[in-house]
Amino acid sequence: MNILFVCSKNQWRSPTAEEIYKNHESIHVRSAGTEPGARIKITARLISWADIIFVMEKKHKQRLIQRCPDEMSQSKVVILDIEDHYKFMDPELVDMIRSSVDPYLGGG
């Protein structure tokens, strides 16, 4: 399964999620951001690659739909509702991501 994590700048939240799941045996993970200054910017190709897209906030889903409506029409998107209050690998952020994402992975 290919999983894409998306936040704004691809600096704290989505890279944390990618780090958590990068060694999971049955999934491949990537992360990207929606902002022009993002470390890795979202592309139509990344959206098409993903079997499931986890966005940190509702606005990220809206931005993906605006930029890549064709690719997004085929995408499964889950909004995690994790606001931008955390640094990379913040223990609270890790717990929030795991508790939200693991159910989609059959228990992680």
UniProtKB/TrEMBL annotation:
<dbReference type="Pfam" id="PF01451">
    <property type="entry name" value="LMWPc"/>
</dbReference>
<dbReference type="InterPro" id="IPR023485">
    <property type="entry name" value="Ptyr_pPase"/>
</dbReference>
<protein>
    <submittedName>
        <fullName>Protein tyrosine phosphatase</fullName>
    </submittedName>
</protein>
<feature type="domain" description="Phosphotyrosine protein phosphatase I">
    <location>
        <begin position="1"/>
        <end position="107"/>
    </location>
</feature>
<dbReference type="InterPro" id="IPR036196">
    <property type="entry name" value="Ptyr_pPase_sf"/>
</dbReference>
<dbReference type="InterPro" id="IPR016919">
    <property type="entry name" value="UCP029416_PTP"/>
</dbReference>
